Amino acid sequence: MRLAVVGASGRMGRAVVRLAREAGLEIVCAVGTTEVGRDVGELAGVGPTGICVVDGLAALEHARADVAIDFSTPAATLALAPIAAAAGTAVVSGTTGLDEVARAALDRAAARIPLLWEPNMSIGVHVLARLVAQATAALADWDVEIVETHHRAKVDAPSGTALRLAEAVQAARVGSPHVVHGRQGRPGARPAGEIGMHALRGGDVVGDHVVHVLGGGERLELTHRATSRDVFAHGALRAASWIAGKAPGRYTLGDVLRT
Ligand SMILES: NC(=O)c1ccc[n+]([C@@H]2O[C@H](COP(=O)([O-])OP(=O)(O)OC[C@H]3O[C@@H](n4cnc5c(N)ncnc54)[C@H](OP(=O)(O)O)[C@@H]3O)[C@@H](O)[C@H]2O)c1
Fold it and tell me: Is this prediction's pTM over 0.85?
């Protein structure tokens, strides 16, 4: 599999490069906006690969990559979608904070290439979402509050994973409860039918998600804690191996894990 890495000089990009090299995968293109000209393997701490970071997604047009793994920014993902579609390169994207325009661009690209976007590439979070759906359906009148914690450099809030967990609750409950972001002042007594969402930022926390399901006299706390970015990089690489050669369309990590 010929692999392109978008966001190659970022935290996740470096983890993807390192694990791809350790797995013996061929990296043919590395796109970033910093560390341009640096060998991407040296940047990731695994020695020279002969592939240097280039600034500009147009590099994908001639890279003949089978799959592009993207952990970058919403703007870069938006730009990547049509370029990958034109190049016939499948996309595995984990970039979060995408708006409707970027999501629509992914949908359009998926008419021409296989494409998987997933706000959390960890298998543990995938299972957590299923447990959350099960618990909140069974405890239909209990309150739900989602608390996520990430490192101080994270730029979007709430996390894509927290939003995905809220979607799992909405799908499991009648009336699709709406999300309320934080509370301050005098919001009054908590009404039924809302999902509280709270984002904590600080230190070097890789990613914690706690779903509180609160009843009278008892409560559940369903928790996932990531202690290494490698779990997300592993998930993305597994998805990339799976998606190479698939028919055009939108895929999910669930599709990958089912097979
Ligand atoms: N799905 C998951 O499992 C998962 C897990 C972890 C993180 N994420 C998400 O992945 C994204 C990246 O996270 P991170 O922690 O790696 O952030 P990061 O360290 O800031 O890396 C993002 C990288 O994208 C680069 N970039 C910006 N514009 C670009 C462009 N036009 N072309 C190519 N590269 C570009 C940035 O370059 P500059 O440094 O020059 O700006 C940076 O190196 C975020 O959205 C994060 O929430 C998802």
Answer: yes
- Is 193:175 a contact under the CB 8 Å cutoff? yes
Which two three-digit tokens encode residue 134? Answer: 């099960």
Catalytic site residue 246?
no
Look-up: residue for tokens 């976007």?
Answer: 117
Model pLDDT, residue 258: 87
pLDDT at 81 over 90: yes
Nearest to 192 by CA among 212, 178, 211, 172: 178
Ligand 1 atom closest to Cα of 151? 15
62, 126, 150, 209: the catalytic one is: 150
**Ligand 1 neighbour 97 (Cβ under 6 A):** yes
Beta strands, E only, 71-165: 90-93, 114-117, 143-150
Please report which confidence band the pLDDT of residue 99 belongs to, taking 50, 70 and 90 as the band edges. Answer: very high
Is 73 close to ligand 1, i.e. is its CB under 6 Å away? Answer: yes
Strand 178-181 versus strand 114-117 pairing type: unpaired
